[in-house]
Amino acid sequence: MRRRKKPGSKEKLLSYEDYLCKEPEKYKGRWKDYFHEEKLIHVELGTGRGQFITTLAEMNPHICYIGIEIKEEVLLRAVEKAVDKGLKNICFLWCDINKIHDIFDKNELSRIYINFCDPWPKKRWVQRRLTHRNFLEKYKYILGENGDVHFKTDNEKLFEFSLNELSYENFRLNNITFDLHHSETNDGITTEYEDKFSALGMKIYRCEGVKRN
Ligand SMILES: C[S@@+](CC[C@H](N)C(=O)[O-])C[C@H]1O[C@@H](n2cnc3c(N)ncnc32)[C@H](O)[C@@H]1O
Q1: Which atom of ligand 1 is nearest to the CA of 98?
Q2: Binding residue per annotation — 208?
Q3: What are the pLDDT digits (tens) for 61-70?
Q4: What kind and span of H or E run contains 196?
Q5: Band of pLDDT at residue 6, cut at 50, 70 and 90
Q6: Which protein residue's CA is at the shortest distance from atom 24 of ligand 1?
Q7: Which EC numbers characterise this protein's activity in its record (predicted)?
Q8: Can 118 be counted among the known catalytic residues?
Q9: Helix, strand, coil shares of the chain as percentages rounded to 5?
Q10: Residues linked to residue 173 through DSSP beta bridges, in sequence order
Q11: What domains sit in the chain, N to C, each tagged with a CATH number?
Q12: CB atoms within 10 A of CB 186
């Protein structure tokens, strides 16, 4: 069943001017100016309700975080978390991940997180998967030297697909786990979807792909 949008969520989201960057294309190549800081920039694609990225931003004030999300009602929840925590090193973009090349310039990012993205299971949808080689090409361009992609999913087939695509695109694979919550590499920083799936006893798959220079 499709959920009805909450009335007023768009207006409320737009009112958080310190946390929502409304014209992200303007900052292409100069995101450090947006944050007024010479810090590393980490981006989460499909940030959802923001538990993961706001936890990281709180723990790592020396890094600037950008969360990208297309659904305003969901994004509003993420922004409210950042407001509640009084975070200064985070902003959110209400936009489509497909526009990422209009928003970030070559070598601008240090890390991209992709957590529990839509698996797009049918063959004809393969190019929509965020770990498809076409997306990985774009990530390679906007990631700087030794930049990396951190990927988590509950979907085994998508995970296998993603490992293959990362290898095809010449990323170096690190810290691959087929059961994160029983692995030494687990840092305990979870997303909302991760909490939901792991509570159901589902395995969480995780890997890192490091860009080779
Ligand atoms: C399955 S949810 C996972 C949310 C969060 N990462 C988590 O793990 O709890 C995927 C999220 O990606 C967002 N999303 C999907 N396609 C997108 C796109 N093209 N641009 C921006 N966000 C997108 C969805 O709206 C949704 O909130």
Answers
A1: 19
A2: no
A3: 999 999 999 9
A4: helix 192-199
A5: low
A6: 46
A7: 2.1.1.33
A8: yes
A9: 40, 25, 35
A10: 209
A11: 9-210 (3.40.50.150)
A12: 14
